[in-house]
TrEMBL record:
Alphabetized Gene3D superfamilies for the sequence: 1.20.1260.10
Domain Ferritin/DPS: 17-151
Protein family membership: Belongs to the Dps family.
Database matches in InterPro entries: DPS_DNA-bd, DPS_DNA-bd_CS, Ferritin-like, Ferritin-like_SF, Ferritin_DPS_dom
The protein, known as: DNA starvation/stationary phase protection protein
Pfam assignment, any one: Ferritin
Biological source species: Henriciella pelagia
Length: 153
């Protein structure tokens, strides 16, 4: 059945491209955050373990929201880990960093999500207010989380 939501095919494609970048960054950050939750050690273990759990839970929910927006635009969401990572600049760690490096890495990761979200907003704001709003919300959350992580260093 044809889709008629007030966006042209080209506009929907541009929106999906913007969302995929944020989805990829979010997926990479989710994976990193969950790994850090499992592997953090040291005197700040309890507080960081709990904070990382809160963060990866929020990121997991965001992944679903972003992927479902792609589907609402009548495109398929990335179907593999490899495809998700192809949209991300955030890279997995080789080994397990210490707790301070984890916090630094996650702060930088949230900044990467915020940048991708802002780029997406700029790309779609004049024709897709729904996607622009979703990406603005992602940037808001990423900005706040990056600040909280920086403040804990």
């Amino acid at each position: 059945m044809p889709i008629d939501i007030g966006l042209t095919d080209d506009q929907r494609k541009k929106s999906v491209e913007a969302i995929r970048k944020v989805l990829g960054e979010t997926y990479a950050l989710y994976s990193k955050t969950h790994s850090y939750h499992w592997n953090v050690t040291g005197p700040r273990f309890q507080s960081l373990h709990a904070m990382f759990m809160e963060q990866y839970t929020e990121l997991w929910a965001a992944l679903d929201e972003l992927a479902e927006r792609i589907r609402a635009l009548d495109y398929y969401a990335p179907a593999s880990t490899e495809e998700m990572y192809s949209y991300a600049t955030i890279r997995a760690d080789n080994g397990v960093p210490d707790a301070e490096a984890m916090v630094t890495n996650l702060s930088k990761g949230h900044e990467a999500v915020a940048r991708a979200a802002r780029e997406g907003v700029a790309a779609v704001a004049e024709f897709d207010d729904v996607t622009a709003d979703m990406l603005t919300q992602r940037a808001t959350i990423a900005d706040k989380t990056a600040w909280m992580l920086r403040a804990s260093l």
